[in-house]
Each structure stands twice: as structure tokens, then as C-alpha cells.
């Protein structure tokens, strides 16, 4: 089955039949157009060469800061570290109150309440990984309990991981139903679905899982956990962008994109913002619809921002250590 993406495409309810059975979902996903990997990588590389003028760079830096999910997901995380990270997220540069806050602080579920209290009424959201992050290998009741705990602790957003083993084994409806069940437990919390694109083997699989997740109700599609060898790349992120663009054209439903892992420099961030602008347009150029999953990116953005503001670099000691 080939999906025809036009301005007259049916609303999401018209696609309900494609999830009625495992066979129907398989036919739909395998009927999606194949990905031209060479062309995809060439488009991503071309977008990465676009130059940005100084005035646009200043705007892009502030926009990138506002899109960061400032993250700590370590076994050694402590309440003190989460409070410190929350303070940094609210006020990234204490010497310049014009610096925007980040979008969210991303933590494990047991640290969600700590982050919620620290962030108070700042407007910075609490994001929490759940569903047996990062492997996603647990029974569904365990994953749902994990999600409920995070939401009860104050998480505004849930970053779940799919069962890659189930997906790669072709158990598409099982993955669909798991995402849908987690979405229901989220309540008003927004759901980001992590694919771990570096483990999905092919670009066709990345396109298929993107559509599967969006059909199941994902609010965001996310490349990676940041815990494997291959995380966000320009090509796999561009593929997610093209998927959400086509999904909105087909259904009228807008879904966000979050590349995560390996995005460390201002240059990297601006390349991704150019990609958003050229592929998705203004509708996605806000932290409601685009995020960076990062821990060290903020420091480089702050140093580059200081350079534009004062004409000099302050060096790495200018910013606090994550």
C-alpha cells in the first residue's frame, strides 16, 4: 500500500483500519515509499553547508538554547546534581538575564519530583525517561508503572523507548499497542517516543517506525537514547523530519522531532535548525515542536553567545560544569 501525501489526504481517523490487525499494519508500513539512502545523506549534507549571517546566528543560538532538554541520565545522579542542573536550565548565564531558559530538564523518574520542586513556576518543564530506559526490555505492566510513577512525581513529558527487538522481529502491532498504552497513562504529559535509530539497521526501518509511533499517538519522535554508539545524525534526523512533514500532510496532526546524542557544538545545532527551517518551516521552529536532547551543548552555545555579545571568548571556565 503506497501512501499518497496530498493536501486532500484523509484525516487520522481514516487511517484507523491500518492498525486493525498486525497484517494490516505490516501492509501499510511496508507499502511506504522506500528511502533513497544516498539521496537522503546528500540532502542532509547539503543543508549542513548553508552559511548563517551574524544576526541570524545570534537568533539561532538563543533559539537553540530554548530548545534544549538539558539532560542527566547517569547512575550516579543525586538530588544535588539535579537541583544544580535545574538552576542552570532556568538561568543558563547569570551574567546575562536575557539568555533564554532551556525547554526542559530530563531525568530518571526517581528524580522527577526533585526537578519539579527545583524548577517551581519557572516554565521549564520536567521530562522523564521511562519504560525501562534505555533498553526498553521489560514487561508492559512494568513500563506502565514506570510511566505512572514519573507522571505522579510531576513529569510534564515522558520520553519512552520502544522495544527494538519486537520491532525488528516484525511484531509491529505489539509495538503500536505498547506506545498507545503508554500514551494513555501519560494523561496530559506529552509523549516522546525514542527509536534508537542506530540499532534499526536501515533507513526504511526508521521511516516505518516513525509512522508506527505517530499512528499510535506520539507527540514527538526522537532519534536516540544517547547511550549507544550511533545516536542522532543529520541523515536520520532529516528522515524523521520528512516523516512528520508527510504525516501532517496526510492527517493534519503535527508531531515534534527530537534528535538526541552527539550534538555538542553550536555549529551542530545551527545545522539542525537550518534543516528544520528548510524541511518543516516556521511551524516547527519553536520548543513546542523541536528539541535537542543534550548535556554538553548548552555550554558551547553560551560561549558562542558571549563571543557575539562581547567580541571575545571567555573560555570553558566561563560556564558551569554539568
UniProtKB/TrEMBL annotation:
CDD domains: DeoC. Pathway: Carbohydrate degradation; 2-deoxy-D-ribose 1-phosphate degradation; D-glyceraldehyde 3-phosphate and acetaldehyde from 2-deoxy-alpha-D-ribose 1-phosphate: step 2/2. One of its GO terms (molecular function) is deoxyribose-phosphate aldolase activity. Keywords: Lyase, Schiff base. One of its GO terms (cellular component) is cytoplasm. Belongs to the DeoC/FbaB aldolase family. DeoC type 2 subfamily. This is Deoxyribose-phosphate aldolase. It comes from Streptomyces chumphonensis.
